[in-house]
Amino acid sequence: MKKIDLIIEEGIKSERADIYISRALSTLEYKELDNIPYTRSAIQKLISSGNVFKNGKEIYKPSTLLRESDVINIKIPPAQVMSTEPQEIPLNIVYQDSDIAVINKHRGIATHPAAGNYSGTIVNALMYHLKDLSSINGEIRPGIVHRLDKNTTGLMVVAKNNNAHIKIANQFSKRIVKKKYIALLDGVLKEDEGEIVAPIGRCPKNRKKMTVVHNGKIAKTQFKVIDKFNRFSLVEFTLITGRTHQIRVHASYMHHPIVGDKQYGGSNASKLSGQLLHASFLEFIHPTTNKTISFNSDIPQDFKDFIKKISC
Q1: Which residues are the active-site residues?
Q2: Which helix (H) or strand (E) holds 75?
C-alpha cells in the first residue's frame, strides 16, 4: 500500500478536501507514480472508504474543509486486477453501425463488471458480439456510455469508438439525450401528470442506496399516468437529469414505489425478479451523421403478464 503525505500550502483558507487533493495529486510529480488516482471522483472514493487522514484523524466526507498547515495522509490501496473476457451471452441488438450499437437489455444482468462480479455482464456479451468498442472507460467498461440497473430492462446506446463515445457522453452531460421509462407503481396516483424536483444523494444509513437529501445533486423527473388499476398505476417517466437510481428514488419519495423494487419499498406480490421499470425510449444525435435518431422498446413479457393479471 502506497502512502502520500501533504501539507496544505500557505494561503489556503478553506477548500474542499476532494478538490484540493485532486489538484495536488494531478501534478507531474505524483502522476509519474504508479497507481495514483488523481481524478476528483477517485479521491472521493478514497475519502469515503477511510483512506484519508487530516491531522491524524480519518475523514469520511469529500466536503471536509482544509486550511493552510493541515497535514494530510493518504493511503493508496493496491489496484484490483480484473480482466474482462468475452462471453456468449444472448444480446438483443436493435441497431448498429460502425459507430454505435443500441441494445435492448434484459432483466437480471449487470451492465459492467465490478468487484466480486467479473463475468456475466452486458460488457462480457458486447465483447463477444461486437468487434469494436470504445476504450475511454477502460478495460472493465468498454463501450459503456451510460448504464441501466441490473434489474431494469430496456434501451442502451453503446459506443464502438472513442470519437462516438465522447460525442454521445457530451450529449448526456448537456442533457440532449432524451430518455423515457415505463414503470408500474404501487398505489393509485392522484395527479395524472407532474414533475418531481428533489435532490438525490447517497443514503447515510445504507451506502448502497440513494435517497432524497437536502444537500444532494439536483434531480428532476417528469411523470405521466398511462393507466390506473385497483392498486397500481402504470406511469411514463421522462428523465430531465440522470442521477443514480433516480426514478426508483423519486417513485419511493412519492410514496408510490415501483412494483418489485424491494430495495426502495416496492411490493413483490408475484415474486418478481426485479423492479418493473423499462427504458422504453431513447433519442440522441448520431455522432457521425449529426442526425437525430430515436428508438422505442415494448415492455418485456413478465411486465405484460403482471399487467394482465391485475387487469382481470
Answers
A1: 149
A2: strand 71-76
From first to last of its 312 residues, what are the pLDDT tens digits of the chain?
A: 678 899 998 999 999 999 999 888 776 455 445 455 567 887 898 899 899 999 999 999 999 999 999 999 999 876 554 567 899 999 999 999 999 999 999 999 999 887 667 789 999 999 999 989 998 777 678 899 999 999 999 999 999 999 999 999 999 989 999 999 999 999 999 999 999 999 999 888 887 899 999 989 999 999 999 999 999 999 999 999 999 999 999 999 999 999 999 999 999 866 788 999 999 999 999 999 999 999 999 999 999 999 999 997
Q: Are residues 168 and 179 in the same domain?
A: no
Residue-range definition of the domain harbouring residue 236? 175-299+306-312
Distance, in Å, from the CA atom of 73 to the CA atom of 234, rounded to the nearest integer, reads 52
Quickly list H helices, the chain: 17-25, 28-31, 40-48, 122-129, 162-173, 246-253, 301-311
* 151 & 268 share domain: no
> Can you give the pTM of this predicted structure?
0.74
Does residue 70 sit in the same domain as residue 130? no
Output the domain CATH number for residue 227: 3.30.2350.10
